[in-house]
Automatic annotation (TrEMBL):
Domain of life: Bacteria
Organism: Dietzia aerolata
Residue spans crossing the bilayer: 33-51, 57-80, 101-121, 127-146, 153-177
Protein name according to UniProt: Uncharacterized protein
Keywords, in A-Z order: Membrane, Transmembrane, Transmembrane helix
Length: 179
């Protein structure tokens, strides 16, 4: 397969499609990764406090919304003050676009929490699934980052493990605090 520049596509069509999908939902950005780690911590804290799934979901949504507003505000001020000729509206638009990953990070772990709120699965199970989902997304991001750079499989796996490590540490901390 050839890229637009006429160079051979070394990542393979499937990997490129997966990477493009992650980029579309903004999880592969700095803000997306930060958001995933933030949500993992929030779910761990909520689970340790014994909150119901619906309360955990509301806690996560409200907290991430507050962080998102702060991120958009700070990004707007920073961009407007450091770029000559950039209007406030343009700075706000840039900041909102850049911070989408923070909001997108809520979606994967929210699915099991919503299922628990609907009574489909147990609340405690939903907390664990939500956190392990975050670890899996972090691992996928690490793997795909190195895969698209044509790294050897071992390096891709090492990247997946290292990016998932912080999510795993949060899970271990929750397990230790919960028992």
């Amino acid at each position: 397969m050839m890229t637009r520049a006429g160079n051979p596509d070394r990542t393979g069509g499937r990997i490129r499609r997966e990477r493009d999908l992650l980029a579309e939902v903004h999880l592969s950005t700095e803000e997306g990764i930060y958001g995933l780690i933030l949500v993992a911590g929030l779910v761990a804290v909520a689970g340790t406090a014994g909150l119901s799934s619906i309360r955990t979901l509301v806690f996560v949504l409200v907290t991430v919304a507050v962080f998102w507003v702060a991120h958009v505000y700070s990004g707007t001020v920073a961009a407007h003050s450091s770029h000559q000729g950039l209007t406030l509206r343009m700075a706000l638009r840039m900041a909102r676009k850049r911070s989408r990953g923070l909001l997108a990070a809520v979606v994967p772990p929210a699915i099991p929490l919503v299922l628990a709120a609907m009574g489909v699965i147990d609340g405690l199970l939903a907390d664990w699934i939500a956190m392990w989902t975050i670890v899996a997304v972090l691992a996928l991001l690490g793997f795909l980052t190195y895969r698209r750079r044509s790294a050897p499989l071992g390096m891709c796996i090492a990247a997946a493990i290292s990016t998932a490590a912080l999510g795993f540490v949060i899970i271990v901390a929750k397990a230790l605090l919960h028992h």
